[in-house]
Amino acid sequence: MGFILWILIGAAAGWAATRMLDIRTGPVQTVLIGMAGALVGGLVLKTVLAVLGILGGLIGAVLGAIVLLWLWDRYGPK
Question: Could you report how far apart the first and last alpha carbons of the chain are, in Å?
């Protein structure tokens, strides 16, 4: 269940990150990159902050999606 939740959070975080950072990507790219960032960030932060449980995973998912979208915008194909 957590895996699916991270994907949904990542899709939403990807959409929100493009608005906050004024990143221009297509909707499919935004959702896919957001989901990938959420999965990686969620797994990493949930492991590092095991005390927080699912909250650590959710925070990691949002941060991971934002960071990966920023990296894509900065270093990805133009």
Answer: 36
Task: Please tell me whether residue 78 adopts helix, strand or coil conformation.
Answer: coil
Q: What is the pLDDT of residues 17-38, one digit of tens each?
A: 788 888 888 888 888 888 888 7
Question: Cα(42)–Cα(47) distance, rounded to whole angstroms?
Answer: 8
SS3 34: helix
Q: Which residue has the tokens 């939403």?
A: 12
Check if the beta carbon of residue 65 is closer than 8 Å to that of residue 14.
yes
Closest CA to 13 of 73, 60, 75, 78: 60
User: Could you tell me how far CA 58 lies from the centroid of its own chain?
Assistant: 9
